[in-house]
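Run D-malate dehydrogenase (decarboxylating) through structure prediction, thanks.
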Amino acid sequence: MKHIKIALIPGDGIGPEVIAEGVKVLKAIEKMDSDISFSFTTFPYGCEYYLENGRMMDEDGIEKLKEFDAIYLGAVGYPGVPDHISLRDLLLRIRKEFDQYVNLRPISLLNPSLTPLKSRTEEDIDMLVIRENSEGEYAGAGDWLFPGKPEEVVLQTGVFSRKGTERIIRYAYEEARKSNRSLTSISKGNALNYSMVFWDSVFEEVGKEYPDVKTFSYLVDAASLYFVSNPERFEVVVTSNLFGDIVTDIGAAITGGLGFATGANINPEKAFPSMFEPVHGSAPDIAGKGIANPIAVIWSVSQMLDFFGESNWGKAVLTTIKDLLREKDYHTKEIGGSASTRQVGNRFVEKLIKSMSP
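Sure, done. The structure for D-malate dehydrogenase (decarboxylating) is below.
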């Protein structure tokens, strides 16, 4: 039996509400499949923990999390705690400490009724964005000089190492080759004359080893336009930490909103745990109301199962999401329905069980 140890960090706002539905799905799979089991340990890390303890996690939090196969995160962020603290001291720290250098963000239209774009189908919007997840513009390098004085200067330094840049680009080429899809690099070499010129050169250099992969390269401003006007241009996309963060939110917008935004933070070598999360944030304005859309957190279950070699279950979860979205009685408020978070989760489990029954 394959046993997967999962560290749960429900986090802030709607995080606990949606994570509960994702756990419900995993437990249902465990009951249906005698070859796989899950164990869950919950950690109270997040903004409430910060307000009580002055830190986002235990001092030995990283050591505790290191014992798990995966981390399942609900959301981070809440009023009263500065965003740069909540993000950097928990989410970014985990990504860096566990060398989760690959961020996988699927941008797929699950139902044509969800997109604000005219006459677009599932075939038009179906891409995988591979975002560098450990350095770049989010490396935290820089300085703040002469604070409060007329000559005050702030420096924010993007860090692009040969190792970090080459490994993410190579990962993207491998994915494009494996899936027989084109690969697009998004950069800004005309303006960022060091970091992005370097990125472009590495993309071209590594590409010589993959002559079978069709490639494109767009400036980030043009790519942002094409995400909206011509999303069918994109199949596999590779880009830097900052640009990936931005274009994937555009991707969420064209596929139905942040309730459909999921992400996997991957350490491909499995030397450390990988982390799976919805990317919609903590949404404090609706926290506690039971109306949050749990689709993204359930989609991240699909990503988790794929990562652990359970691709049949990963596919079954994604197929069931698509089937569920055809039932308007189980749409949550932000997509025009009235179903609760729990109702969507329960109905999902019902449909998954039925679809996998002999």
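The mean pLDDT is 96.
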